[in-house]
């Protein structure tokens, strides 16, 4: 692999992405692990508790939204940051889980549950997210295919700590809007269903409980995706702090609230295993994971990203598309 742009020296930010000339590592590691530990296949399949967990989170967040209808704005902001953000980010990652059909064996049921999980987030995104996220798995790092990677515009603009602070605060917008600008896909029937159901909920929230309840939901989504401990996973998963590895796991306590998305190497190796069982992959095959760089604090990852002058949006691994793609 090589790095374009400026020389690789401490404190100097690159002017190009890290380029790899090998395939992404997960397919080959999956084959190796299954050859030595075939019992891992027993972990494949839906999480029987997913439906209940998602419904509880949705009901709790919608109830909280109705409860703050007469609260002051400062109180609403505080509740959104210290409580609602955790619920909405949990639901965002539930939608990630559902994009892999890990609540039901029948895909359409996962899609319907995803639309339900979307409700407190306030903006329709569950159906569109699945389209782009599955491509992230199929074409990890592939130029023009993997929309998880920042655009050249983002990378050229975010060149110092101040710009990185702003980028982190608004990273959810970049994450959501980037694929719509770089690789737009025509909406289908399910996008329209997602849109209509979501707008219906938003309208009902404003009509029956007022703007404060609706704004609470939007704030919970926005602050939960910015300078927030749970949002550290956006950076920790694939941003390269030490060249040589392109996917990183997090083994801290916030996995309990995030469908164990921190087990990210394990997830990319085995996307058919639900988050509730990913820790078992590491237990069964420790020799494949203990030698990899990992994190135990998402907040620390955000701090390192902002303060390390050599790290920025260009700190991602890319590879050229194959002719067959």
TrEMBL record:
Q: Which GO molecular function terms does the record list? A: sphingolipid delta-4 desaturase activity
Q: Locate the transmembrane regions by residue number.
A: 72-96, 108-129, 157-177, 189-208, 214-235
Q: Which GO terms describe its biological process?
A: ceramide biosynthetic process
Localisation: Endoplasmic reticulum membrane; Membrane
Listed InterPro entries = DES1/DES2, FA_desaturase_dom, Sphingolipid_d4-desaturase_N
Q: Would the keyword Zinc be found if you checked this record's keyword annotation?
A: no
Q: Which UniProt keywords apply?
A: Endoplasmic reticulum, Lipid metabolism, Membrane, Oxidoreductase, Transmembrane, Transmembrane helix
- Which N-terminal stretch is annotated as signal sequence? none
What is its EC class?
Answer: oxidoreductase
Protein EC:
1.14.19.17
Q: Where is the Sphingolipid delta4-desaturase N-terminal domain?
A: 12-50
Q: Name one GO cellular component term.
A: endoplasmic reticulum membrane
Q: How does it sit in the membrane?
A: Multi-pass membrane protein
Summary of the function given for this chain in its UniProt record: Sphingolipid-delta-4-desaturase required for the biosynthesis of delta-4-unsaturated sphingolipids and derivatives.
**What family does this chain come from, according to its entry?**
Belongs to the fatty acid desaturase type 1 family. DEGS subfamily.
Q: What is this protein called?
A: Sphingolipid delta(4)-desaturase DES1-like
What organism does the record attribute this protein to?
Ziziphus jujuba
What gene is it encoded by?
LOC107423895
């Amino acid at each position: 692999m090589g790095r374009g742009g400026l020389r690789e020296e401490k404190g100097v930010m690159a002017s190009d992405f890290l380029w790899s000339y090998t395939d992404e590592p997960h397919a080959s590691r999956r084959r190796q692990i299954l050859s030595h530990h075939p019992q891992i296949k027993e972990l494949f399949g839906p999480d029987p508790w997913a439906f209940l967990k998602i419904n509880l989170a949705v009901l709790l967040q919608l109830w909280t939204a109705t409860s703050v209808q007469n609260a002051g704005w400062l109180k609403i902001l505080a509740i959104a940051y210290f409580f609602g953000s955790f619920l909405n980010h949990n639901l965002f990652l539930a939608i990630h889980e559902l994009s892999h059909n890990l609540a039901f064996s029948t895909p359409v049921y996962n899609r319907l549950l995803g639309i339900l999980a979307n409700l407190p987030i306030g903006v329709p995104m569950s159906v569109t997210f699945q389209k782009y996220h599955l491509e992230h798995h199929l074409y990890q790092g592939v130029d023009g295919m993997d929309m998880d990677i920042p655009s050249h515009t983002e990378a050229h603009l975010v060149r110092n700590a101040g710009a990185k602070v702003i980028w982190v605060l608004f990273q959810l917008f970049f994450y959501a809007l980037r694929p719509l600008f770089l690789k737009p896909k025509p909406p289908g029937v399910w996008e329209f269903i997602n849109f209509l159901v979501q707008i219906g909920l938003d309208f009902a929230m404003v009509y029956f409980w007022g703007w404060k309840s609706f704004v609470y939901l939007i704030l919970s989504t926005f602050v939960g995706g910015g300078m927030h401990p749970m949002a550290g996973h956006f950076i920790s998963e694939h941003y390269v702090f030490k060249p040589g590895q392109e996917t990183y796991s997090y083994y801290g306590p916030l996995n309990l609230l995030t469908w164990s998305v921190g087990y990210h190497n394990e997830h990319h190796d085995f996307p058919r295993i639900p988050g509730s069982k990913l820790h078992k992959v590491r237990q069964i095959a420790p020799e494949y994971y203990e030698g990899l760089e990992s994190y135990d604090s998402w907040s620390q990852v955000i701090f390192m990203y902002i303060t390390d002058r050599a790290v920025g949006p260009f700190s991602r691994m890319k590879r050229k598309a194959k002719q067959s793609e």
